[in-house]
Amino acid sequence: MKCDRRGTELTVEVNSEGETEALAKALAALVEPGVVIGLIGPLGAGKTRLTRALAEALEVDPETISSPTFVLIHEYQGVLPVYHFDTYRLKDANEFEALGASDYWEAGGVCLVEWADRVADRLPRDAWIVRIESTGPTSRRFQLCWPEGSDWSKLLAARLGV
């Protein structure tokens, strides 16, 4: 897998849901208000699982977290607000824009956009991109991409011990 955008990238291999949760916790420790994370991967890759674990790491009540497939946008309160988008059922990027998604970029929370490849041209230039590939029943390959000049990959690698 290659980053679509120029910048820093880090590939992380996980072998279990527990390791996916550890990755999400490491990401949660790095996010700041205004961070937009685009999640890309096929059905069942783990986009919603990563989102759930990241939201839980930001102290969102796990009972309130669900897949936004039918609602399209979920808002959760935690240490930071978490805005969870799912673009799978949208016809095109114009529908995403019509939802007012860009209003969330500056709303002081963390935005997680599933199926981000479908709306890539509507994401902020400095969005983080996470590509997820299933490599087995519980194993995954995460390719994380940050804008050029970012040190996030070094910080994340240090947190994960990779």
How many whole angstroms does the radius of gyration measure? 14 Å
Question: Given this structure, which CATH class is correct?
Answer: Alpha Beta
Large-scale geometry:
globular
Fraction of residues in helices? Answer: 25-40%
Q: How many discrete structural domains?
A: 1
**Major pleated sheet:** 7 strands, mixed
Average pLDDT over all residues? 86
Portion in strands: 25-35%
Under CATH, the topology is which? Rossmann fold
Oligomeric form of this entry? Answer: single chain
The number of helical segments is: 5
CATH architecture identity: 3-Layer(aba) Sandwich
Sketch the topology as an H/E string, one letter per element: EHEHEEHHEEEH
Low-confidence stretches: none
CATH superfamily: P-loop containing nucleotide triphosphate hydrolases
Whole-Å distance between the termini?
18 Å
How is this structure best described in words?
Helix content is 28%, strand content 26%. The longest helix is centred in the first third of the chain and has 14 residues, at 17-30. The chain is globular, with a radius of gyration of 14 Å. It starts with 6 loop residues before the first strand and ends with a helix. A 7-stranded mixed sheet has the order 1-7-6-2-5-4-3. 38% of the residues are buried. It has 5 helices and 7 strands; from the N terminus they run E-H-E-H-E-E-H-H-E-E-E-H. It has one domain: P-loop containing nucleotide triphosphate hydrolases (Rossmann fold, 3-Layer(aba) Sandwich).
